[in-house]
Design a protein that fits this description.
263 residues, alpha/beta, six-stranded parallel beta sheet, two-stranded antiparallel ribbon, 13 helices, 8 strands, 46% helix
C-alpha cells in the first residue's frame, strides 16, 4: 500500500471499511500510473465477500486505490448518507487507461486472462494498437483456490518487467492475485484489477454502450445476455444496501461459518 502522504493527497470516501477514490477517472488513472500498486473496482455483488472470505477482505484493505464501480453502492450511499461519491466504472477506467497508454511510446503491458478464448479475443482486438498485444504478453490464469499463489506467473512477470498489468479474471481471485503480486514482485508496476471490463472491449463479453454504463445499466445488459450466471450474482448484490445501512463506514463483521466461492 502507498504511504500515508500519497493517500492524504487523494480525495476518498470510506464505505464499508474501504477508501473509495472520489475524483474523476483521469485523476484515478494518473494516480495509479504515477505511483504503481494495485487498483480494485468492486461491483455491487462483491461486498458480501467482505464477511465470508478473509483473503479477499485482506486484499481489498491493502489495495492502493479503489474506484466506485457499483452504481447501487453510490446510490445507496447518497440516499442514506446524503453524500456524493463519484462513480467510475471499471469499463470507463480501462478505456481511459488504454487511451492514455496508446499515446505513449513503448508502453509495456501484461494481460492476465481467464481462458484461451478471452486471450484470442484480446489478440484479435488489439493487433492494430501502438502497444500491439503478442501472445507472450498474455497469461491464462489457472483456477485459483481460496488462497492465491502463482510462482510461475511471478517468474514470468519478473522476467518481462511490464510497467502495467491488467488482471481480467473476475472479482475475488483478481484482487487476491493483485495483492499477491504486489507483495512478492521485486519492483512496483501498476496493476489494474478490472474484471469483466476488458471483455466488454474485446467482445468476449456482451457490448455495453457508453450511455448504459453512464446510467448504471451495465448490469442489465449482462443479465439479459447470461441470466443463468447473473441472477445468482444479483441476488448476492441485494445484501449491499443492508450492509451500508448497518455498517456505514465500518468494515462488516467477519462471519466464521461460511466462505463464498471465488468463481
Amino acid at each position: 500500500m502507498l504511504d500515508a502522504g500519497c493517500h492524504s493527497m487523494t480525495p476518498t470516501r470510506q464505505i464499508l471499511g474501504l477508501r473509495f477514490f472520489n475524483g474523476d477517472v483521469d485523476e484515478a488513472v494518473a494516480f495509479i500510473h504515477r505511483h504503481g500498486g494495485y487498483l480494485v473496482a468492486p461491483s455491487g455483488t462483491c461486498f458480501a465477500r467482505l464477511r465470508n472470505d478473509e483473503p479477499y477482505r485482506r486484499a481489498m484493505l491493502s489495495a492502493d486505490l479503489a474506484i466506485a464501480d457499483s452504481g447501487l453502492m453510490v446510490l445507496t450511499w447518497r440516499l442514506l448518507r446524503r453524500e456524493k461519491v463519484q462513480r467510475i466504472s471499471g469499463l470507463k477506467y480501462l478505456k481511459r487507461l488504454l487511451t492514455k497508454l496508446n499515446r505513449e511510446e513503448n508502453a509495456r503491458l501484461f494481460w492476465i486472462l481467464p481462458n484461451k478464448p478471452a486471450r484470442q479475443k484480446l489478440l484479435d482486438c488489439f493487433h492494430r494498437e501502438l502497444f500491439s498485444v503478442k501472445s507472450d504478453d498474455c497469461y491464462v490464469a489457472p483456477r485459483y483456490g481460496l488462497e492465491v499463489e502463482d510462482r510461475h506467473l511471478l517468474t514470468l512477470i519478473e522476467k518481462r518487467q511490464p510497467a502495467h498489468i491488467v488482471i481480467a479474471i473476475g472479482s475475488g481471485p483478481q484482487e487476491k492475485l493483485g495483492h499477491y503480486l504486489c507483495e512478492n514482485l521485486s519492483y512496483r508496476p501498476a496493476i489494474h484489477c478490472t474484471g469483466a471490463a476488458l471483455g466488454f472491449i474485446t467482445g468476449d463479453q456482451i457490448t455495453i454502450p457508453d450511455w448504459a454504463d453512464r446510467f448504471f445499466l451495465g448490469w442489465f445488459f449482462r443479465l439479459i445476455a447470461q441470466p443463468q450466471i447473473f441472477i445468482p450474482r444479483l441476488t448476492r448484490g441485494l445484501a449491499l444496501p443492508w450492509l451500508i445501512w448497518k455498517y456505514g463506514e465500518k468494515m462488516p463483521v467477519m462471519r466464521r461459518s461460511s466462505v463464498i466461492s471465488d468463481q
